[in-house]
From TrEMBL:
UniProt xrefs under PANTHER family: REPLICATIVE DNA HELICASE, REPLICATIVE DNA HELICASE DNAB
Keyword Hydrolase: yes
Domain (DNA helicase DnaB-like N-terminal): residue spans on this chain: 4-81
UniProt name for this protein: Protein containing DNA helicase, DnaB-like protein
GO terms assigned for molecular function: ATP binding; DNA binding; DNA helicase activity
Pfam families: DnaB
Taxonomic source organism: gut metagenome
InterPro entries membership: DNA_heli_DnaB-like_N_sf, DNA_helicase_DnaB-like_N, DNA_helicase_N/primase_C
Length: 156
């Protein structure tokens, strides 16, 4: 599950219910709970989702549809790549519509297209940018923790 959650987000799934189920699986994993038929179905019911998503039969069908979990990274990459293609198609349609409508200048249309393509690329490469303040605070916390440790310094 950890491998898939590093590659995918719920937005990557074509069908919304698969993204909802994926989020529930990630939640269970993050809480240290097993991700199986019973725990997943219970989590989905806790979220008060419609029976067509949270029923035992539906969850069982989904689990049975996956041949093996050994190839999870491969499967996750397929879903991710298809999500990128869908985003590109959607962006292309939006740009084409803006061109046909001619409500904006060419420059504005180009800027919007560039922003949308950059956003797709940014998500594919590794997610959103992190504010420098957050990076600095994390580094300071790590340094403070290390300075409080007693013992011999190694690696010098």
């Amino acid at each position: 599950m950890l491998v898939a959650s590093e590659i995918l987000t719920s937005d990557d799934f074509y069908q919304k219910q698969y993204g909802i189920i994926f989020d529930a699986m990630v939640e269970l994993c993050n809480e240290g709970q097993p991700v199986d038929l019973i725990t997943l179905q219970n989590r989905l019911k806790e979220k008060e989702l419609p029976p067509d998503i949270s029923s035992m039969e539906y969850v069982r069908e989904l689990i049975a549809a996956v041949p093996t979990s050994a190839n999870v990274k491969y499967y996750a990459n397929i879903v991710s790549e298809k999500a990128v293609l869908r985003r590109l198609i959607k962006t292309n349609e939006e740009v084409a519509n803006a061109c046909y409508l001619e409500k904006e200048s060419t420059e504005v249309i180009l800027e919007e297209a560039e922003k949308k393509l950059f956003h797709i690329l940014q998500k594919r490469v590794g997610g959103d940018f992190v504010p420098i303040q957050q990076v600095v605070l994390n580094a300071i916390n790590t340094i403070e923790k290390a300075s409080k440790l007693k013992g011999t310094v190694t690696g010098i």
